[in-house]
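Lab channel / #folding
Pinned by the channel admin:
"Please post every new chain as: sequence first, then the structure tokens as a reply. Keep commentary short and put observations after the output so the thread stays searchable."

First post following the new format, from NK:
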Amino acid sequence: MLITGAVIAFLLLGVLLLLLEIVFVPGTTIVGVGGIILLSIGIYLAYTYLGTMQGHVSLASSVAIIFLSLIVLLKGETWKKMALDTTVEGKSVQQVENMVKLGEIGKTVTRLNPAGKAIFGDQIIEVDAAGKFVDAGCEIVVTKVSQNKIIVKTT
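Reply from TO:
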């Protein structure tokens, strides 16, 4: 009777740890490894001390419980409650091509080291001096505009 209780305890704890691993703890951690070890010990004890038939029952019931639990979690609203379900409406980066034009003249606000901030009209924009250092307050001209980068040089 003691062995039967131990087998059941190992199997239940193993299943619980595996479900915790799958649902709450991302990646392969000690929780999942511990669950597999406890399941293995429980199934081994069932085969060794309770016989082949009880071993088969223990193995099949463990697999069935894990499988059914995953189906319930994935089909139910539980999974949706844990997932992020918001949308971002704003833009993260404005199109640089629309902010400045090739040949436009501006003034550095910070030291370009080689990147820094410059003002063009009334907009302060991050620019790159193509590997050179430019002090604050210097006049610059836009030499290249590509996707998210503005390359400048001193005038």
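NK: Residues 83 and 128 are 39 Å apart (CA to CA).
TO: also worth noting, The mean pLDDT is 85.
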